[in-house]
Each structure stands twice: as structure tokens, then as C-alpha cells.
Backbone:
């Protein structure tokens, strides 16, 4: 699949935030907001397919989200299984390759196995790479990369002086994935919350007040228009 020629866009990353507030506004328990998130995910996949983006990373659960009440965490983990099982056929039909980033070993075995089988089943697909960030933290990822580099140094494979930015990138969880050109966050919060810290060094950040369950194809297209209006300079001059 080719990158979008108009937007020059290969990788969109989204912080899907605001499920709890969406539910609260309706007098519903927070978990209903997580339930309502599914359609927005469908829409994001659809739009990425239409414009020919190669990678869509969705921040679904952070390393910090484990500190939430047990009942909410366990609901989200069950929802993850349900989402995978309920959508794998359609995603496979759409030629989507399901992938993850994060510490998958933290995920309970039930949903982890569902994920692994969905990844296996879609591994040969050549369309959109749908990357679910699960138990993902940018600092945890960097810590793991540094640990990998440190052991290579200890084993004598190379010296500290050989460390380059490219080498650090190549020790991240998915070294083949290009940095996102744009990071979108819903719900009005304007922070990264430990998402893709290394990879977002030069990403355009687009913040929208829309809560994730209300974020559909139209809202995503608006965020991409905003991205398109930006001048990317990378420290240079126009
Ligand atoms: C995002 O919605 C989903 C996860 C972080 C798992 P939130 O649950 O953070 O919703 P708000 O921010 O409390 O509204
Ligand atoms: C970021 O949202 C994580 C995900 C969307 C998965 P949070 O709701 O956890 O972030 P904070 O707590 O507002 O920074
Ligand atoms: Mg939140």
C-alpha cells in the first residue's frame, strides 16, 4: 500500500481519550464509555484505508492505566477480547494486519491469546497495519530499548560510543514502523501521557475537544485537514 500522496502521511497515531467523561455526561458508569468506543475505532480504520495510510497506532491502555480500579481494568481486558473476536473476520477481510506495541506479557492470558491468534491470522495481510498500544508506556519502551543496548555492549557486540539515534530507534518495540507524522488526542487534554515519546519528537500534535466515542470519520478528517495546514520545518527554514 502506498502512503497518502496529498498528505504525505504514512503513520497516524491516536490517543483515544474521553470514554469515561462521555459516559458520565449521560449519567452512565464509565465502562459504558469504553463500550461505546468501538465504532470510533471502525471509523478510524475505514478512513485510514480510504486515504492509504500504512500504519494506525491506537493508544488503548497505558502502563499507568493499571492503577485504575480493578473492576474497570478487568472490564477493559474483557472488552479487548470481545473486540478482537468480534472484529478479526472483518479486519482480515479488509486486508488489515493486526499488531501491538507495549508489554504484551502484562496482559491477562485470555485476551493475550485472542490477540496473538488475531495477529497470527492477519500476519500475511498487506493493507493497513493496525497497531494496538496495550500496556504501553513511552518510558517503559525506552527503558527496554536501553536494556537491550546495554546487554549488547556487555556482550562486546559494540561500544557505548557506537550508540546512535538510529540504533535506539532499532531497539524500540516495532523498529520497522516509521515515526508518526501526526499524533491526535481526543477529549481536550493536551498532553502525551507517556505515548510514543521517542517517535513523536517531530510529530504534529492535533488536539480536539471531541470525546473518543463521538470521534467519527468526519472528525478524523477534520484533524487531518488541520495536520495538512501545518508547516513542518524540522528545525530548518522554509
Ligand atoms: C480513554 O478514556 C480510555 C483509556 C484510557 C483506557 P478514559 O477512560 O481515560 O476516559 P476519561 O479521560 O476518564 O474521560
Ligand atoms: C491516555 O489516557 C491513555 C490512553 C488513552 C490509553 P489517560 O486518560 O490514561 O491519560 P491521563 O491520565 O489523562 O493523562
Ligand atoms: Mg482519560
Residues:
Amino acid at each position: 500500500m502506498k502512503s497518502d500522496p496529498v498528505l504525505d502521511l504514512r503513520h497516524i497515531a491516536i490517543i483515544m481519550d474521553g470514554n469515561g467523561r462521555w459516559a458520565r455526561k449521560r449519567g452512565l458508569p464509565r465502562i459504558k464509555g469504553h463500550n461505546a468506543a468501538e465504532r470510533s475505532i471502525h471509523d478510524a480504520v475505514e478512513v485510514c484505508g480510504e486515504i492509504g495510510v500504512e500504519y494506525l497506532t491506537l493508544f488503548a491502555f497505558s502502563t499507568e492505566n493499571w492503577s485504575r480500579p480493578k473492576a474497570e481494568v478487568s472490564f477493559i481486558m474483557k472488552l479487548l477480547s470481545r473486540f478482537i473476536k468480534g472484529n478479526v473476520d472483518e479486519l482480515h477481510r479488509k486486508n488489515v494486519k493486526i499488531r501491538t506495541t507495549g508489554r504484551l506479557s502484562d496482559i491477562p492470558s485470555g485476551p493475550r491469546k485472542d490477540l496473538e491468534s488475531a495477529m497470527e491470522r492477519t500476519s500475511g495481510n498487506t493493507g493497513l497495519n493496525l497497531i494496538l498500544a496495550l500496556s504501553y508506556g513511552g518510558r517503559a519502551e525506552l527503558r527496554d530499548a536501553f536494556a537491550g543496548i546495554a546487554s549488547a555492549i556487555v556482550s562486546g557486540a559494540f561500544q557505548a560510543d557506537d550508540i546512535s539515534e538510529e540504533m535506539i530507534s532499532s531497539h524500540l518495540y516495532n523498529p520497522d514502523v516509521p515515526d508518526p507524522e501526526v499524533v491526535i488526542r481526543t477529549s481536550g487534554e493536551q498532553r502525551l501521557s507517556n505515548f510514543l515519546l521517542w517517535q513523536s519528537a517531530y510529530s504534529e500534535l492535533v488536539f480536539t475537544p471531541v470525546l473518543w466515542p463521538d470521534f467519527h470519520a468526519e472528525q478524523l478528517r477534520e484533524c487531518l485537514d488541520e495536520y495538512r495546514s501545518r508547516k513542518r520545518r524540522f528545525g530548518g527554514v522554509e
Remarks:
- The pocket of IPE (ligand 2) is lined by residues 15-17, 59-62, 64-65, 189, 191, 193 (CB under 6 Å).
- The mean pLDDT is 96.
- Strands lie at 11-15, 55-62, 97-101, 129-136, 182-185, 204-207.
- DSSP finds eight helices and six strands in the chain.
